[in-house]
TrEMBL record:
UniProt xrefs under Gene3D superfamilies: 3.30.70.100
Transmembrane stretches, start-end: none
Pfam families in the cross-refs: Dabb
Protein name (database record): Dabb family protein
InterPro entries noted in UniProt: Dabb (IPR013097), Dimeric_a/b-barrel (IPR011008)
Domain of life: Bacteria
Start and end residues of each Stress-response A/B barrel domain: 5-100
Amino acid sequence: MSGPIRHIVMWRLRAETPAERTAARLKVKTLFEGLRGRIDGLTRIEVGLDVSNVDYACDVVLFSEFASSAALTAYASHPEHLRVREELGDIRIGRFQVDYPINPETGT
């Protein structure tokens, strides 16, 4: 598969109280947004925090785009990405992911 690819990841986070949940969400957002401009081939990154607070919702969504599937593969083992994963430790208790090609003409 060549061409741009979209990488979306959603997490449920470990937290006992609403304050801990807020702090965990902000930590994930800050760390992932810190990758902007640091990884070749990462063309877009956005982190959203859930505001619905329904019991079945994920806490955080990472919306990112890569120049190619090779760039996404390289991201997985990039030292900056690995640093973020290490800093987050076991804060993430559930993870869901979707990767799909983007049509360059329509952006979808």
